Amino acid sequence: MTTIAVLGNGRVGGNLATALTRAGHEVTVADRTPGAPPDAARTARIVINATPGAGSLDRLTALRDELSGKILVDVSNATTDGLPADLIYPGSSLAEQLQDALPETRVVKTLNTMLFPVMTAPATLTQAPTAFLSGDDPQAKQTAGELLTDLGWHKEWITDLGGIQTARATEAAILFVPHVIRSTGFAPFAISIAR
């Protein structure tokens, strides 16, 4: 059992918290109530950023002390609006910005190349999806990968892309989302690497 704090209680955060609790972890969900995010982050071993990506950097930088020494699993995408039209950090990524701002925190980017229901139910798709891992700390990525298996991800569906700078590629994939939804409707889908 791992103590996990999920920052953000919307569809993404709530979905992850429910699934991780079901998998046997001790999970705290922190909303925007004053004091909730620092308290949750302080007592957790792993913190999941499921806050809206446009404001994530400011929110998490304010938790620098509480996040020191922790693994921060970032599942957000920083885009200019709800249905992404453009990236807030072109030429970089939210994950890189977080790692730069939080040097004592081990940031891992994952689960950001799919609609949120797939994060906790990957086997419901008709073909195997891919979950990518980006991060500079191998142990943090291994821990994040173990969480993914607890969420139903088979090891062969998880691809370690390398350092945190590789999050630029996965974050850019969010630009597919509005076009796919317009074309096929709001049905769960994910990026998949076919071999």
Could you write a compact summary of the structure shown?
The protein has helices spanning 11-22, 36-43, 53-61, 64-67, 94-101, 116-119, 138-150, 167-172, 177-184; strands at residues 3-7, 26-30, 46-49, 71-74, 106-109, 131-135, 158-162.
Give an overview of the whole structure.
It is a single chain. The chain has about 200 residues and is of the alpha/beta class. The chain has one domain: Rossmann fold (3-Layer(aba) Sandwich), CATH 3.40.50. About 35% of the residues lie in helices and about 15% in strands. Strands 2-1-3-4-5-6-7 form a seven-stranded mixed beta sheet, with helices on both faces. Helix 3 packs parallel to helix 5. The N and C termini lie far apart (about 35 Å). The mean pLDDT is about 95.
Please name the fourth-level CATH homologous superfamily: NAD(P)-binding Rossmann-like Domain
| Fraction of residues in helix | 25-40%
CATH class: Alpha Beta
Count of DSSP strands: 7
The topology string of helices and strands comes to EHEHEHHEHEHEHEHH
Instruction: Specify the structural class.
Output: alpha/beta
Strand order in the sheet with the most strands: 2-1-3-4-5-6-7
**Main sheet: strands, sense, barrel:** 7 strands, mixed
Question: Helical element count?
Answer: 9
First-to-last CA distance: 34 Å
Q: Please tell me the CATH architecture by its name.
A: 3-Layer(aba) Sandwich
Query: Radius of gyration, rounded?
Result: 15 Å
What's the multimeric state?
Answer: single chain
Choose one word for the global shape: globular
Question: Could you please say which CATH topology applies here?
Answer: Rossmann fold
Tally of domains:
1
Low-confidence stretches: none
Percent of residues in β-strands: 15-25%
Provide the residue-averaged pLDDT.
94
